[in-house]
UniProtKB/TrEMBL annotation:
GO terms for molecular function: oxidoreductase activity. InterPro entries: MPAB/Lcp_cat_dom. This is Uncharacterized conserved protein, DUF2236 family. Residues 54-282 form the ER-bound oxygenase mpaB/mpaB'/Rubber oxygenase catalytic domain. It comes from Cellulomonas marina. It holds the Pfam family MPAB_Lcp_cat.
Length: 306
């Protein structure tokens, strides 16, 4: 009796690594959800190849998501809600899977499924309330708080896409992305949602007096940066994404998070790390067929070059 002891081929190793990454991000039901999102016929909120699909389908979202979480934590009510109700320490991967699925459904899914996902989140938000450490009341369905969460995400997703995306948007497309993302924010109940890149910058500036350091935000940052619940073998890759996320944050945000601002050489290294990290993710996930936004963007780039 013989036993096959051959090593897996490079293609098989790539496929396995890509599958492991996909399951971590999308959850155990990720493949089923992916098929339902992309294969179910029906009208969508957004046209195929639209700016929001290109941004949200790009590997740069791995950097943008980290940046968004760090930036969002600087709002005391947002951080209190996360600390009190999200279970980010006990179930970080579950939270990531729920967030990534929501983004995928609202961006690529049918209009009915997108609305159902929004309705579910709104129901959850009505049950989340509490007080910040200084005693200020908060509610997760507060329109102003939802606006902060939204602008932090849009700013982060767009900035990292422009730096690390396979096909950065031009100025008009960037405004179109913000305009399209505003539809989802309004559906969730956010108020006074910006619809242009300039409007996002103005909104963040208007929130600055409310934002600031807190013990919870700094603890969350330390957890994300130094205690991620991931196998040691993949921590170097995670570190590349973290360096890129930190390198893209403004100096005031780094100071509030008690993270040293990078110097010129460190900024260059962080940018290089972001490119290496996103290209590696893109290469792994391409074997899964899970990059619709990037595939659309790449087809458009090749068509334009021809």
């Amino acid at each position: 009796m013989s036993t096959d002891t051959r090593w897996p081929s490079p293609a098989e190793l790539r496929r396995r690594a890509g599958t492991a990454l996909f399951v971590r991000v999308a959850g155990p039901d990720g493949a089923e959800n992916r098929h339902r999102i992309h294969a179910t016929p029906g009208p969508r909120w957004f046209e195929p190849g639209s700016p929001i699909q290109r941004v949200h389908g790009d590997a740069s979202m791995f950097v943008g998501g980290l940046r968004a979480l760090l930036l969002q934590s600087l709002h005391p009510a947002a951080m209190a809600a996360v600390a009190d109700h999200s279970g980010y320490r006990g179930d970080p991967w579950g939270r990531l899977a729920r967030t990534s699925t929501f983004l995928a459904v609202t961006t690529f899914g049918t209009a009915d499924d997108a609305q159902a996902a929004v309705d579910q989140v709104r129901r959850i938000h009505t049950r989340i309330a509490g007080r910040t450490p200084d005693g200020t009341r908060y509610r997760a369905d507060d329109p102003d708080l939802l606006r902060w969460v939204h602008v932090a995400e849009v700013d982060s997703f767009l900035r990292t896409h422009q730096q690390y995306g396979v096909a950065p948007l031009d100025d008009d497309e960037a405004d179109a992305y913000v305009f399209q993302a505003a539809r989802v924010a309004r559906a969730l109940g956010a108020s006074r949602v910006p619809e242009t890149v300039a409007g996002v910058a103005e909104a963040i500036a208007a929130f600055r007096p409310v934002l600031g350091p807190s013990v919870a935000a700094r603890e969350a940052a330390q957890f994300m940066l130094h205690e991620p619940p991931i196998p040691r073998v993949v921590r170097p890759g995670y570190g590349l994404l973290v360096r890129a996320a930190l390198g893209s944050l403004p100096a005031w945000a780094l100071a509030d998070l008690d993270v040293a601002a990078p110097g010129r050489l460190s900024t260059t290294a962080a940018t290089a790390a972001g490119h290496v990290g996103t290209r590696a993710i893109r290469w792994l996930l391409a074997a899964q067929g899970d990059v619709p936004g990037e595939l659309v963007a790449e087809r458009e780039r090749r068509a334009a070059a021809a």
